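Troubleshooting entry. The earlier prediction with pyridoxal-5'-phosphate gave an output that would not parse, so I re-checked the input for stray whitespace and re-submitted. Clean input:
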Amino acid sequence: MAEKNFSTNCIHGYNKKYDTTGAISVPIFQSATFAHPAVGESTGYDYSRLQNPTREHLEKTVANLEGGIDSLAFSTGMAAITTLMALFSPGNHIIASDDLYGGSHRLFHHVSMKNGILFDFVDTSDAKATELLIRPTTRAIFIETPTNPMMQVTDIKLISTITKTRGLLLVVDNTFLTPYYQKPLSLGADIVMHSGTKFLGGHNDTLAGFLVTNNQTILEKLQFLTKTIGAGLAPMDSWLIIRGIKTLPIRMDRQQETAMVIANWLKAHPSISTIHYIGLPDHISYDVTKKQCSGFGSMISFEVDTEETAIRLLDRIALIQYAESLGGVESLMTYPMTQTHSDVPIEVREKKGINSRLLRLSVGLEDVWDLINDLEYALRKD
Ligand SMILES: *Cc1c(COP(=O)(O)O)cnc(C)c1O
């Protein structure tokens, strides 16, 4: 059969038939364990912590979309990163983006460091500064691109030339763009990480996480850690993410189209002082984005003139909801300082621009003018 395109693979990315009824939808195998046909034999499934057919279908689909040899599905994005961190030993050093998802920052500072992993945090969009931090004990570079919430973009290929010559692992958190707009493995990354809770699931109804790789040795280590740690995704939740992924391209295209209109509208608004959207040609990394991504996504951060404006806006939005998370059909507004990044020390936050005037908008699938009307009312001074 001819190679299929991305949209088709979202729906038919893995064609194994698990039953004989002709069911179009993959069955939810709500079974903790599987009977063995005979001593020393297995159906291929033994116990759902190790593998479950519904989870397997999801893992193969995500691996196909990212161009990996396989993937592992976890109960949350944080469970994926926690399992990833078990690859490393005390004394190992990791270089990570200095503008990370707040949960990753918390995990690295409060759990991984306690377990003896050493870190340096740097703006990885500066490849020279990143390379200078490599020590003999460095094992990996962990990047998020674009970053949350400041939308810094790292040139994945450039960093991968460093990791390849120095024998380091390159891990990329691809949550914001998904493989529909960015394929880190094809740009030289070794492991792609996802919060599947966001665009992949897409409906603000299920938590999930992924690790994807194109390296057999890494895959086997991650499979061993997954069965040992036990944070794999449940069958029902696997099915919900399988269903979400079927509409990934069509959702992301529309959400991006709406985000572009909103970004330009916000940019022209007198109460907005700065806007961070990677789709705007005046974004500092527009050229890198155009080179390595096929789209811009629908995440916008912006700074308003005063803290009062920020708080009034959060009070007055009605269609857009004031909630953590992103990537779903419902538009959500986040106040990073008090929500996603509340555990980041204030000096670090302020230095990055995560202050009391910064807001983050995840543009959903509502009508663009309904969203703009909601923002227009919330930004009025009366
Ligand atoms: C949400 C998020 C995570 C964590 O994922 P959960 O599913 O919430 O555990 C990690 N990285 C990024 C960029 C995220 O947005």
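This one parsed fine. Residues 31-245 form a domain with the Aspartate Aminotransferase; domain 2 fold (CATH 3.40.640.10).
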